[in-house]
Amino acid sequence: MIRFILLQNRQGKTRLAKYYVPLEDSEKHKVEYEVHRLVVNRDPKFTNFVEFRTHKVIYRRYAGLFFSLCVDITDNELAYLECIHLFVEILDHFFSNVCELDLVFNFHKAIIERMGELEKLE
């Protein structure tokens, strides 16, 4: 199960956060800080999976953004890496070469339009 999804830049600024478990705001900020420190300082030679508290974080860096998922310890890491890649491909297709500023200023457009498309399929 996915606990949360974070998109953060190299400086640690969270550009998107979605939590699927209830957390207080102070705990959310603490988690975001800890995850950023965990992934940004990791050697690129290591895997993109790292233990975090009683869960694990699967992350991938695209340009200046880190896409991080926190999942249960028994979940399949490669499936989640593929999910991250698919999400980036969708963003890239929608924004025509997505960048951090697209996410900051136009992300609501992508979410609203994609949700509308999904509703049409149902």
TrEMBL record:
Example GO CC term: the record gives: AP-2 adaptor complex
Main location (coarse class) = membrane
Localization, per the record, is: Cell membrane; Membrane, Coated pit
GO molecular function terms listed in the Swiss-Prot or TrEMBL record: clathrin adaptor activity
Instruction: Give the membrane topology, semicolon-separated if more than one.
Output: Peripheral membrane protein
Q: Which Pfam families match?
A: Clat_adaptor_s
- Keyword annotations for this protein? Cell membrane, Coated pit, Endocytosis, Membrane, Protein transport, Transport
Entry's transmembrane regions: none
List, for all copies, the residue spans of the domain called AP complex mu/sigma subunit: 1-110
Biological processes annotated in GO: clathrin-dependent endocytosis; protein transport
InterPro entries noted in UniProt: AP_complex_ssu, AP_mu_sigma_su, APS2
**Family under the similarity heading:** Belongs to the adaptor complexes small subunit family.
- Protein name per Swiss-Prot or TrEMBL: AP complex subunit sigma
